[in-house]
Write the structure tokens for this entry.
Amino acid sequence: MFEITREPIDILRLNESVARPEAGGIALFIGVVRDHNLGRAVDHLVYDAYPEMAELQMRAIAGEARARWPICEITMSHRIGRLEIGEVSVAIAVSSAHRLEAIEACHYAIDRLKESAPIWKKEVWTEGEAWV
Amino acid sequence: MARVKVLFFAALAEAAGRRETYIEVGEGEAVGRLPALLVAAFPRLDALCANVAFAVNAEYAAADRALRDGDEVALIPPVSGGCDVRDHT
């Protein structure tokens, strides 16, 4: 599953979507909205995306991860719209027979997602806002 | 002539006051020329286009990519998905 969604991300559903009888480990990365950045108090975030392209990028990143590690399943979800402090903005779940491959592939996928997916974030502070 | 659809996101969408527009360009015009061509209609884009990347039909494209009639072009500001901005500043 590779999705850009306006709905809250269901972590359990993501987890279940990669569970396999042959998978002995699931790595789950959860990105959440933090209340500060670079010394400023953040009130909330607004995410924007080019959904069709972002989902294609997710598929491409999954293909890269599969080429590097013998993983079973990988799934990614990124939320857009207004998110409050503590809400989940992004989640990636990876399953593999053994834990190390899942952990490494998950780490790789979130790094790649952040550098290549057309997704943008606006920080809204009490005294202003900026796309960062 | 080639009629292309242009998509705006994030700060560019706010500056343009919309999320998409259509523009007529010469057949084979380089996608990298689009910001200069769009500034007449959307002057506030001028200050924001220095660091944009381009996507044509949902794939990243080099600035010299030739445009064809019906292409969908996205102006891609620096991306910032995920949850932590420290490593893309």
